[in-house]
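User: Before I run my own analysis I want an independent prediction to cross-check against. Here's the chain; please return only the structure tokens and, at the end, one sentence I can use as a sanity check.
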Amino acid sequence: MRRVSAISWSLSVFLLSFFFHLLPLSIWSEPAEPTPAEWPPKFNALLFENSSGKLHVIDFWYDWSRGGSLRITQNQLAKLTYERSWDNGTSYLYPSEIHSPCWLMHIPPGILRPNWMEGAIYHGQQYVDGFLCNVWEKVGVVWYYEDAVTKTPVHWSWIPFPGEQSVHVITFNVGAVLEDVDKWEVPDYCFNNNNKLENDEEMKASAF
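Assistant: Structure tokens:
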């Protein structure tokens, strides 16, 4: 009787060991940390931005296939401005009024790549703007918050010197196309008489 029990026990152990051996290793290992979703190659987002206390509402158009982006910014109780940027680091900033001053800026490496958050450090989950988000930090400067379910960007903040730029995503429309294609074009007068932006004080003096 004891011999039968011993055989049964050995057989049970063998079957359990065999069963566990067949299970995928991932069941026993720690789940992989989430990574930020790449930005779609084309989208439109309505953004609310707080830049060191200055408030802006931004109609942001991103088109990686075109190699550029367009920010149409309504500054609080101030002018509407346009910023047309390319992937070569060139940007033109100009107000909506015709023949107003234009600023030419060189900001390498250019517009954000779709995978610009690649290599970011994961910091767990946090509720932001009422959404449960995965949180990443990159190079100690960018904090990025993405909806844990939909993978849609919810919020990001930059901590450049000397202030902070905080962006909240109001709408995010993948594949959206700017119907007024002329808005992608920088006004001709910007190429005839433009100024290179040197510092923030010159920006303030321009009343942008």
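Sanity check: The helical segments are 2-22, 188-192, 200-205.
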